[in-house]
Amino acid sequence: VKPVESKVQARAYRLAAATPQVESTVVNDHTSGTWGTSKWTIDTTNNILHIGEGTVTDTGVKVDANGDVTDWGALDWHNYKVIETPGEDSGLHLSIDGTVTMGADASYAFSSLRFDDDTDFMYVVTDDTTNMTGMFMESVKSRTSRVFSVKFITAKVTTMSHMFYNFFGAYNFLGLDDLA
What SS3 state is found at 12? Predict the structure, then answer.
């Protein structure tokens, strides 16, 4: 004996059978990732990039002949689009959440980011870094009376080209005289 189907059930069954099944794909929204052993996430509500403790790999950033970035390499957060609000500082703010040991190539690592009073570069280890090109390029330090001290070991650094190009803010960078 065949069970009785309602017209609605029968139609739903035919539609389901006729509908092609689409495989789901993961979309990279550029809000989280791993850089070496360091996990990073973006708090999209407050526009804060959190870089977790770990040892990071070379940035792998590529630039063209004009110095414009053509590929952000390991710095995928640069592909995240912050919604700009006129009259507000709506850039991506940085939070360093533990000790971060930089690789040999730290070029552009903190470029185009916003630094607040809570951004602490004392937890960034650069002992084996050789390339700091554009590391803080076009970054902004919030306007406060507090001046941070940053002590980077630069004994192995061979290039700091454009390290502070268009940087805006007040920091006390210690250790940069190691190049002399």
Answer: helix
N residues, the chain: 180
At residue 171, what is the residue type?
Answer: Y
Q: What torsion do the CA atoms of 57, 27, 138, 82 make, to the nearest 10 degrees? A: -150
Spatial contact of 56 and 50, defined as CB atoms under 8 Å apart: no
Q: With contact defined as beta carbons under 8 Å apart, do 30 and 47 qualify? A: no
Closest C-alpha to 160, from 83, 87, 116, 108 = 108
- Residues 59-114: tens digit of each pLDDT: 999 989 888 889 999 898 888 877 666 666 668 889 999 999 999 999 999 998 88
Q: What does the pLDDT look like over 10-24, one tens digit per residue? A: 555 555 555 444 443
Beta strands in 75-130 (DSSP E): 93-101, 114-115, 124-125
Across 14-27, b (16+ Cβ under 10 Å) vs e yields eeeeeeeeeeeeee
